[in-house]
Amino acid sequence: MKVLMNAGPWLTVPPPGYGGIENVVATLVPALRERGVRVVLATVGSSDLEVDELISVFDDGQFGELQKPYNQVMGIAHAHQARIVAELRGRDDIDLVHDHLEVVGPAVLAAYGGPPVLHTLHWDLRKHPHFYGAFPSSIKVNGVSESQLARAPEALRAASLGAIHLATPLAGRRVEAERGEHLIVMGRVCGLKGQHVAARVCQKLGLPLVLAGPVSGRDSQAELDVVAQDPDHPLHGHPDVRYHLDQVAPYLDHDLVRWVGAVGGEERDRLYASARAALFPIQWDEPGGTAVVEALALGVPPVGLRRGCLPEIIDHGRTGFLADTEEELAEWLLRIDEIDPEECRAEARRRFSPSVMGERYLELYERILRGA
């Protein structure tokens, strides 16, 4: 089987730091290739994931361009997708396209026709009501959690082949790190992730907290200061920047509550693995929960609000705790030592390893091809 895997033009695969979809692709592709699937990866030229073929329009990731006005960047995704159509038109050995490019991907591929398409939904399905409300029937989709699909418009649910939970390469791999006392929130700093709630709770309880992740693409305090101190900077009024400055920064004391910026690679894994617990005070219905799966794989018990996919990932009282309110969240944090880290690791190996995700996607590909 030969699959064209469309990761989009935004970041390299794997990404240098934060990059949700690109990390998913970087986890899935090796598992598929181990099972004999040949992969043609559509991404940017500087990606270094080992694949059978790589196609691209842009040499480097275009994520930074997304900060510009829409009419200046709207052609980026379309240029990337036009390259994919040209590739499909010029060859007949692609059995299936696995698409991850939001809206533009399925819209262009449905108009073109070509090989069967599976489009994976990674985001909030309420974002594009006009498109999802009349989703093209020729495209099959899958979600990353059942709760995500439950909120999908009827036309999108009709095209759905079910949900496949995200995986992490950390499942089954030991990261050497001495367990510390700090709690951690890992991920992009924005209102949806609820870093201000974590900071408020930990400050009240006197528990050390580390916030790790970029703010609107700014990876360090120095980079963020440039934005904050310049009212004319294009990111000065960005919602994530305002959220950090107005709701998170007041809790930062560089002692009990710290923001360490974006971290990646082994440094990120060690920082995560050394945490006593991972906090997920999410303020929205999280569709995928990559960071939750990573916490389990590292033996770091997750504690979060009972929203979105978290109840599907966390077994309350066994592999973590779920709360309905901020007050409950604080109560469960005081009981975090009741969770066995080895139980968390075992759950990750059983449910969230790359081999599990690879097998499930291969089954889905075969199902689509039988139907085609």
- Architecture (CATH level 2) name of the largest domain: 3-Layer(aba) Sandwich
Whole-number average pLDDT?
95
The number of distinct β-strands equals 13
Strand order, sheet with most strands? 3-2-1-4-5-6-7
How much strand?
5-15%
Q: Any idea how many domains? A: 2
Q: How far apart, in Å, are the first and last alpha carbons?
A: 14 Å
Superfamily (CATH H level) name of the largest domain: Glycogen Phosphorylase B
Radius of gyration: 21 Å
CATH topology (level 3) name of the largest domain: Rossmann fold
Based on Cα principal axes, name the global outline. globular
Helix percent reads 25-40%
For the record, the CATH class of the largest domain is: Alpha Beta
Q: Oligomeric state of the chains?
A: single chain
Show unreliable segments.
none
Structure in words:
The chain is α/β, with parallel strands linked by helices and 372 residues long. It has two domains: 2-167 and 354-371, 3-Layer(aba) Sandwich (Rossmann fold); 183-351, Rossmann fold (3-Layer(aba) Sandwich), CATH 3.40.50. It has helices spanning 20-34, 70-89, 104-112, 129-132, 146-150, 154-158, 195-205, 221-228, 239-248, 265-273, 290-297, 310-313, 326-333, 341-351, 354-371, and strands at 2-6, 38-42, 53-55, 96-99, 117-120, 140-143, 160-163, 183-186, 209-212, 257-259, 277-280, 302-305, 321-323. Helix 11 links the parallel strand 11 (277-280) and strand 12 (302-305). Helix 1 packs across helix 15 (354-371) and helix 11 (290-297) packs across helix 14 (341-351). The longest helix has 20 residues, at 70-89.
